[in-house]
Please model this.
Amino acid sequence: MHKLDPGFTFEVDVLDEPAWYRVLDQFEDANLYQTWSYDEVRCGRNNISHLLLRKSGEIVAVAQARIAKIPFVRAGIAYIRWGPLWRRQGELPDPEIFRQAIRALRLEYCSTRGLVLRLYPALFQESSSGFVSILAEEGFARSAGKPDRTLVLDLSRPIEELRAGLRPHWRRYLKVAERNALETIEGTGDDLFEAFVGIYKEMVGRKRFTEPNDIREFRSIQRRLPEHLKMKIMLCKAGDKLCAGLICSAVGKSGIYLFGATSNIGLKARGSYLLHWKLIEWLREKGITSYDLHGISPEVNPGTYKFKADLCGDNGKDVHFLGRFDTYTNVVSRLCVTLGESLRAIYREVRKKLADRVERDASRNAAYPGTASAQTE
Model:
């Protein structure tokens, strides 16, 4: 287990929530998943931990970990999503800071607490390949599996170039939306979130897909976030009816597309095109330099992929995250985490099969209503 280099020290759980948010504001790579509110809603206030890395007394890196422990046993996992944060505002990024940060995290959560430490850093293979070596040298092993893939737009370009860089198909629908005299509503309030949830649930029902995130959790997170970190909600109305909406987080120097929806009556209004373009304009005004479209899967969801790829056009890149990295010193923790994940995978598979069966039965009953009546009589 490597010790920190001279001049580096770390502290754990010395900040309250307001102080943590003041620290986040110092980092360009700050993001929603490292906010106190996010993990408090997901796992509870007593199950989150915060580490500060200092160099010569100055904070140079931080990380928020979600802790899951097995009762009465010195075992469990510390999970850090899109962390540590190590790129300070206005400073050139120094990979050595990243190295010392993950070293401090390993010392605290593996050596001292006996937990498995799992990192999902906000780094991309296409621009951060050298960090894989750093992680390996510090005792982290990359998990097997296909890394997540996304599209990231470069918003530092002039707005005219961004518009010209849209794919012709996407730019044409944007013009259609602009001619449709649509009304846009923007804000952060719970009333807007509630309105968005309505058309989002309508879209989920129409497309019959499984929600990747629980939107109710994000609504709770929104209520707890300080105003300057709240998610941006944008709605579009055609006449007096909502036709589209989106939710985006803008923290640090990056924007992240979280949710989007189009209502049944709004499919031809092209409101989602107008909202995304207005969002890009807003992000640039806010000083955001990149816009992450938050995941693509051409095979599983080709329609959404085409929408995002056409929006990205010549303005960004198709990138892959580095992936997930684990490290541990406590074999019991490792065995417990592995067993727990296996059981959870079995539970999810059984749940999916049951849901598929219910959907098949519902479709069959809709097609042959007499059969359903006979079965219930």
In short: The CA atoms of residues 75 and 332 lie 6 Å apart. The first strand starts at residue 8 and ends at 12.
